[in-house]
Amino acid sequence: MIALISDIHSNLEALNRVMEEIDRLGVERIWCLGDVVGYGADPNRCCEIVRERCELVIAGNHDWAVLDKTDITYFNPVAKEAVLWTRRELSGENREFLDRLGLKLKADQYLLVHSSPSRPEEWLYLFEREQFEEEFQAFGEPVCFIGHSHVPVIVDDELKIYGTGVNVEPNHRYIINIGSVGQPRDGDPRASFATIEGDRIEIRRLEYDIETAQEKIRKAGLPEFLAERLAAGR
Ligand code: ZN
């Protein structure tokens, strides 16, 4: 079994819970789609766990923002404040780790990218049918895994939408947003990640200790909204 995680956003409680489940499931390989840091209170510990446990890791916009590798003028004020806080907190070693990450990787028959396969450095958010239609032209692999919007979704090349799992058919291609470990935004506050087992791809959700993650955000002096939104899943 392979597990995919994304958008951890320095939420150690959510990451630990997902890793616990990954171990219980007997997962052999873990791939990470970026945004390890930003928003939450544990950037260093989350980087260390990802470094230790993930076979493949790519960068997200928040990882790049913390390194000053992408423009943060389009970030909202709360996100910006979290980026600046994380810059001060992050160790040199973890900074170097994030700095080595690329934006796109091919793994087995899968493509991994944080935002969009067509223009990964533009950090597009894929929500509309037309966008998915266009993105299917931008890659040739049977399945492209993405994160970034924090909203899990499975779409095939006929723009059919699936629920929480799909059996990959040889005559179809798929874009699969695996959702966010550390800051889900689909109205469900449970941590989200995905697994691949043979042809079966599953999006899984897990309850975790949201209260502790919120307390740490408040203690760190990060914006209150970042604590509140964890409980709302928004
Ligand atoms: Zn993110």
From TrEMBL:
Q: Which GO terms describe its cellular component?
A: cytoplasm
Q: What organism is recorded for this protein?
A: candidate division WOR-3 bacterium
Which superkingdom is the protein from?
Answer: Bacteria
What protein name does the entry list?
A: Metallophosphoesterase
Q: Where is the Calcineurin-like phosphoesterase domain?
A: 2-197
- Tell me which family the UniProt entry assigns to this protein: Belongs to the metallophosphoesterase superfamily. YfcE family.
Instruction: Give the InterPro entries listed for this entry.
Output: Ap4A_hydrolase, Calcineurin-like_PHP_lpxH, Metallo-depent_PP-like, Pesterase_MJ0912
> Pfam families, alphabetically?
Metallophos_2
Query: Which is one GO molecular function term here?
Result: phosphatase activity
